[in-house]
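>> received
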Amino acid sequence: MKYAKVAVEGLHYVSDMEFDYLVPLQYRDALRPGMRVLVPFGRGNARRRGIVTALSKKSDYDKPKPITRLCDTEPVLSAEMLSLVRWMSRRTFTSLYDCAKAVLPTGLGVKLRLFYSVNAGAEKSDAIDHPQKKRAVEYILSHRNLAEQQALLCELGDGGPNALRELCRDGVLSQGYDSERGIGDREVRMVSLAVDEEEAREYLKRCASKNPKHVPVVEFLIDTPVVSQKELIYMTGCSQSVIKTLNARGIVNLYYDEVYRRPYAKRQACAEPLSLSAEQAAAAEGILERMRVGFGVSLLYGVTGSGKTHVFYRLIDEVTASGRAAILMVPEISIASQTLDRLFLRYGDRVAVMHSGLSIGERLDEWKKIRTGKADVVVGTRSAVFAPAERIGLIIMDEEQEHTYKSESAPRYHAREAAMFRCKSHNAQLVLASATPSIESYYQASRGRYALFTLTKRYNQQPLPYVIVSDMRKELRSGNKSVLSRELVAELSQALSRGEQAILFLNRRGTNTFVSCRACGYVETCDHCSIALTYHQRNDRVMCHYCGFSKPAPGRCPDCDSEHIRYFGTGTQKAESDLSAAFPEALVLRMDADTTTRKFAHDRMLSAFREHEYDILLGTQMVTKGLDFENVTLVGVLAADLSLYTDDFRANERTFSLITQVCGRAGRGDKPGKALIQTYSPSHKVLELAFAQDYPGFYEEELKLRRAVVYPPFCDLCQVVFTCPEAETALKAAELYKEELLRISGSYGVKLMGIGPAPCAVAKANGRYRYKLIIKSRANEPFLDMTKALLRFIFSNSQLKDVLTYADINPLNIQ
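>> returned
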């Protein structure tokens, strides 16, 4: 007998496990770990999808149920990826199946389909006692006695589910399940000669007079033995009927060949030799030396414009030359688009791309391209860490400090930790790179756990941008209420008059950040979330950036019917309007979540800006890092204080990083650059260090603060969030969790500090009230075991059945 361990879909983490199933005789030779299957589950034996995690000759159950069918012909997860799935499940408190689903591309998903058939002789049963039941039986029989549930319900209309349920109960109908891939393979019909050249020419002699249309087709195939049907028709002018006739006569073969959907045009590599500075060469050789030894983590810290990308190329060249694969991760799609151009130029079609901007089919085909070894250089956002490369030699995380590397939905993994797991499995090197490394990474480097390599000079030998600080308090006192200070307007005028370009950063989209009544103080808020709605001028609506709710902008106050409705705060749409008014001749390109929804929008926008079709690039966080435009000499930060005064302990770090990174976009060519920072707090220590581009100084100051209040890197944080339609119930769950935590922590040997419970920063979202607990400890094995027990405690409490609870280790955004 043969048994399979199966991770089954639809289970909560606290009740998740690997279930034993009997492998039927017809599947014993084909089934391998990493393949997906359909299995009966629960008392009703409902069909569910699952993934095989292991095979064995023994089972812990007396009579395990048999596997219903296989969904794959070969494993979709390797042994290494199955290990990664188990690690993710334990670390993120997410079921095994959901972790496996996150690792695989969306297009590889399997859909379950339910079919009905009429049992033999049952079409005349007395149980068919209703017109709707009769119609159901007739419909199924008219479709060769097999009808899919969805089509059948459409035919029956209201009452259809009851009719089908009763017909199954009375033995008239039987149910069966099937599965299909969410996205199929892309195939092209191919034509090839089925005979040798001598036979083909003999056929030409025989058919030249009777079938003249066959001649050009056969002649073309003699010169090109294999061609797609589409190309053959185009090149010879023949019709499909000619090809079918040749196939029937045995002269040609027709078959389908899989081709990959290509998100980017086919490229040929034409890389120029690398020219590295002394600092770059030293860093590259140091990392390569560590790579030859085996697994390790290196931190490449370099000022903005120091040429970290050139070091990446040197490392990738070495790794791919040794027959291993390299993965380069970037935090934003906007960065990926510019990085891609350089990688395609250097490595051609050996590059595969993984990010959410591709279609589902394109993502699937890029995944298959990597899996088959046709691509050994992978570039993408967070999901690229799951690239199915067999022999990984290097993973690079560019801008490693960015919060986008942490998933904010289950499974809540950090790409850095997943990359470290994979590098250990492959005995590979992980390179973390940034001009503003995370405090945790720099701390590990300072202690010697990571190797530290530093680039102190810009690659083009230009100095860092000259920083101008504009005090917006003075602007307000002088009567300037615009988002543009007079100094910024003057600097923009000078840059534009010289034919140079500028990048402006404002981390709020929309036109105005809230709408209020001056008469009674009413603020327009979301119906489902406890936040103010943002006004968008383009569609004249107020919108919630949290849940997506929107409604027409009010003309009068809904509370007091006053006409004194006013719009406050400034977003990118308002800033764009102000810029166009101040510089009517300048072309302004706005880049935010509202303008980049279409496929390849980032690529088109950045390409247009690079070609100087626009003079000013205005955007949110996506314009702050990774962009390299030689003609940009001025960068402006319109509101440097936005991220500074929040209740997140990472506010200082995030603000310093944003300002440092955006300032670094200026002066990357031959012309010197300037950065103008607008702020209401010009003397704030964090801003002063950012203006000076002094990361070591900022690190020392921030580390003192983190040590004093015990925050990472001096502990791990676990954020536990409780949500419920009733605020009292959510709070009760949080309090019970804390009580149980204090009661059992000693038995697990866990030392901890707790904060809360307290309402989340957005106390209500999507109609659910939210409370949080912050726990400071070390996320070791006992802590993970204890947290699972606590989640089970809440999950099993019948009084808390409406409460949803999740735990997140080291969140980058405190809720």
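>> Residues 187-258 form one domain.
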